Amino acid sequence: MSTDPDTSGLLRSILPPKRLDRLFDLCGAHGWKLIGAGAVVGALPPVFGLREGYMMTVLSEMFLFAILALSWDIVGGQTGYPSFGNMAFFGIGGYATAILVKDAAVSFPIAMVGAVVAVLVFAAINGLIVLRLRGHYFAIATLGILLAIQQVTRNLDITGGASGKILFDVPPGIVFYYFFLAVLVVEMAVVYYLTQTRFGFILNAIRDDEGKATAMGFNTTYYKTAAWMLAALFTGLAGGAYGLFNTFLDPQTAYNGAWNVELIAMALMGGTGTVAGPVIGAFGLHTIIEYVESSFVGWQLVLLGVAIIVTVIRFPKGVVGTLRAYANEMDYYERGGMAATDDEEVTTDE
Amino acid sequence: MSNTPETDDHAATATADDTVLRTEGITKRFGGLTAVNEVDVEVHEGEIVGLIGPNGAGKSTLFNCITGTLTADEGRVTLQGEDVTDWPEYKIARAGLGRMFQETRIFGGMSVRKNLLLAAQEGGADIGGLLRRPDDSLMERTNELLEYVDLGGLADTRAGRLSFGQQKLIEFAMELMAEPDLLLMDEPAGGINPTMLENLIDYIRTANDEEEATIFLIEHNMDFVMEIADRIYVLAHGERIATGTPDEIQNNQHVIDAYLGRE
């Protein structure tokens, strides 16, 4: 298994590490502008006539998955707690909105507020319990919660049981296109800002060595729960809109375990612990999945499995992480040292 | 210093209100094994106190009971006059206890600079502090400390890429940044080369002289501990067998016997 970035002569001549490192510095320094530019570019297709149809749906779903992958990464990548249960927030958000809109006849925006409250309460309660677990135990516990909440939903009348809920009189597709885009932009801005704050540093510290973080005076359960709730907030918002976007919600769709794996794969492929990585991964993998679904029906899960295996073996740092490791080789050039992998030590100052 | 194990006359001469750390009758058992047995220690403000003993003497277990990593079965731990025996680890740390680990623990996925920024206490735990970006004064102090430990050029390098010795310096710089009331150091001299060891001695001395840092350290390197410590406690088989100045400890028959396996 190799984590060594591509050191071929071709890549080196096209994009020398030093130039890429400068590009990363530039992106880091102008993050706000990049997010703003992304928002503008994302808003353009409907302006130029793409207001409905297949492409509109695909683009909306790309934004949706980017929200989900970035939300997963707040806890899975930034904090080091890989969850298999994020779709529970998605489902609760979806059902809360659907029930409020259909049964309580409230407007979409008010229903979203209700969905957010429901998701945050759920996340706070289960976060304080499952976030005391670590590693495999945490992963299995979150999967257990997802399956349990799916089963509970299947047995309730208010949720429509196993048949689910069909939603009529939903807003047009363009509303959801802009809604998903707006949530994604806000989420990227929030995560980008947090990575520069003490709160963001603490999450990264928990990821790297939770015992040391505790020994430094941080009540890690408190910070993990805050991160968990932040992830739940954005996932719940996405779920809340998805029910109406899809005009139908059932337990299988709302608490989709395969989607949970998919969004983990997206974050891994793009690069965990970064702002851009999960978004890039979501756009890339969803595009591939859409292509495979339309051209090779039934093979999308096979592709997903292959993509995950190739990623974790060949590019465990994902697209962004691999490029960053390659770019950081300049550290060694400047010290007159040899090119080295990211896992080797710098010993020149000793 | 007599050879009587329980004499603690040096600690007794200090005034009561400058006691930073006091343990009284700390006992910790693991099943049938008593790892620490009724150990009393005191560390006073501005002191460097050593804790030595053969392998398995209970030194790290005592440290773990002090920091709250382990809960003592019996006894009390007082930090700055406050009983912290049953406090959780993070709360004891926040009350002013810093710790450097034997195996060196820093946040390898973060840059060297972020490691230090994280250690600064100014940010606190309130929402405002948590959601603020580091201000100029904090960045300046971080840069100064990194220059001080000769790691200024590596501020933006991922900390996990540095050598063991450099990581040890980062951990020490983090504690300087945090300015704890008491710093526990578990084998600070372990695994580093002689040049860096000399530097580390200088850094610890300077922190003690100029910043009045109070330090309680475990060490197996006898030259190091005899050179740097004001007082030394000796543990063997979980019990405190001696205390005194480095000169006194070197001539203490109980200590010599313990290290030669006669006790």
TrEMBL record, chain A:
GO CC, any one term: plasma membrane
Localization annotation: Cell membrane
Residue intervals passing through the bilayer: 108-129, 135-153, 174-194, 226-249, 261-285, 297-315
Topological type in the membrane: Multi-pass membrane protein
Keyword Cell membrane listed: yes
Entry keywords, A to Z: Cell membrane, Membrane, Transmembrane, Transmembrane helix
Gene Ontology MF terms in the entry: branched-chain amino acid transmembrane transporter activity
Name this protein carries in UniProt: Branched-chain amino acid ABC transporter permease
Organism: Halonotius aquaticus
From TrEMBL, chain B:
Keyword Nucleotide-binding part of the UniProt annotation: yes
Domain ABC transporter: 21-262
ATP-binding as UniProt keyword: yes
Role noted for this protein: Probable component of a branched-chain amino-acid transport system.
Similarity comment: family membership: Belongs to the ABC transporter superfamily.
Molecular function (Gene Ontology), one example: ATP hydrolysis activity
Keywords, in A-Z order: Amino-acid transport, ATP-binding, Nucleotide-binding, Transport
GO biological process: amino acid transport
Protein name: Probable branched-chain amino acid transport ATP-binding protein LivG
InterPro entries from the UniProt entry: AAA+_ATPase, ABC_AA/LPS_Transport, ABC_transporter-like_ATP-bd, ABC_transporter-like_CS, BCA_ABC_TP_C, P-loop_NTPase
Entry GO CC: plasma membrane
Top-level taxon in the UniProt lineage: Archaea
